[in-house]
Amino acid sequence: MTSYPRRLDVLQAVQDLRDRTLAGMPRPLDRLIYLASTRDYNTGLYYHDGLGSRFTSEVACEALASCHFDVFRQLVLCPLEDLVAQLEAYVGSTHANPGEVIATWRKLEPYRVAVPLETDPLSVEFLHSSFRIALAILEARWKSLPSESPASPRPSRAQ
Amino acid sequence: MSQLILFLIVAALLFASLFLLVRRAPQGQGEGEALAEARQALNTLQFGLLPPELVGRIFAKADLDYVTSVGSKQIRRAYCRDRKRIALLWIGEVRRKVVSLRQFHLGAARSFAHINLRTEMRLARDFAALLLVCRFVQVLIYVGGPYAAPQMIGFTMRIAGRVCEISEKSLAFLSPAYGTGAPRRSGTAAP
Q1: Total tally of structural domains belonging to chain B
Q2: Best CA proximity match to A66, nearest among A30, A25, A16, A128
Q3: Interface contact A74, partner B, CB < 8 A
Q4: pLDDT at B21 (0 to 100)
């Protein structure tokens, strides 16, 4: 019986997180990156000051983990075409040179550290593969653009 | 003399009962591990490997069509290579978990689950068919790629679903909701 109100707290915290913080992020990819960034790489625990002060840090941690898992699942199940569109929009939102962002993502594979802990290896591998293909498509698309476009300069390094 | 014979018969009966009881009694840690392994295999199958939406994505022809329409031949090749690897990973994992569940049904399940003979026969047939189909699908994917056997994938999922259903009943006593009629989770796994 003691865990019942706690579960309710987590559900309320999840709702709170969705209504306030995540509502401002239209794309699941942005939400995935944001939620992964709230996780401590050493402990695997999530931190969110606002949510932690409204509830408790444990409830906030569980709520963040739950949202992270949901968003991960959403991305795993989205068609490749959607993922490419999301990635393209994300690259555009960084205000950095798109060619460099794509080249860095292909090199560093930051999506590898953005997956939740408690996920099955097959889904993780599947999402990584989709990211690799999406990045290859974006890179090809970027390279095919005319080089004199002033709004989107061509990559300065593509090692 | 007759009293001695009677005494010996009673003693023999008691001894036989004791022997049967010892044989049927759960063997502590070993069976506990088998149960935990079976539960884990079942969870992985139900929530990690067999959800139709995930399998649908792995074998989605729409993704291939999209890559063909926008990507170069090199990207298409990389895509097909990746999807083939993932499809083989999927079918290999399904097979491994099914073998694990079969081990449970051949051993520990007899002590805990009371399955009637008809269900046991059906289960044995399903296990045999499933393992055979998994091997067949593995070969088809290996030779022809991830889109070589869409019907076989559906067939594999149907039999695996049946095996999971019976295994779920055999392992129901491990669930906290056992006997309360509480709804079971379905679809995606909880974090």
Answers
A1: 1
A2: A16
A3: no
A4: 58
Q: What percent of chain B has pLDDT over 90?
A: 40
- On whether the CB atoms of residues B87 and B146 are closer than 8 A, the answer is yes
Torsion, Cα B8 B9 B11 B13, to 10 degrees, reads 160
Q: Do B54 and A76 lie within an 8 Å CB cutoff?
A: yes
Which residues in chain B are contacts of A69 at CB distance < 8 A?
190-191
Residues A138 and A151: beta-carbon distance below 8 Å: no
pTM over 0.90: no
Parent domain of A31: 3-75
- Residues in A closer than 8 angstroms to B53, CB to CB, are 77
Nearest CB to B75; choose among A79, A122, A136: A136
Which of A74, A58, A46, A42 has its CA nearest to residue A10?
A: A58
- Write down the ipTM of this complex: 0.83
Contact B41/B100 with Cβ under 8 angstroms? yes
Cβ of A126 within 8 Å of Cβ of B72? The answer is no
Rounded CA separation A104/A107 (Å): 5
Instruction: Looking at the structure, tell me whether residues A67 and A21 fall in a common domain.
Output: yes
Residues A70 and A85 in one domain: no
Residue-range definition of the domain harbouring residue B113: 34-174
Specify the number of domains making up chain A: 2
Report helix angle B73-106 to B150-170, nearest 10: 30
| B75-79 mean pLDDT | 95
Over chain B, what is the mean pLDDT?
A: 81
Which of A68, A116, A137 is the closest to B75 by Cβ? A137
pLDDT at A133 over 70: yes
Say if B19 falls within a structural domain: no
> How far apart are the C-alpha atoms of B72 and A137, rounded to whole Å?
8
The letter for the amino acid at A63 is A
In-domain check, residue B132: yes
Q: Is A88 left (phi over 0), alpha (psi -120 to 50) or beta?
A: alpha
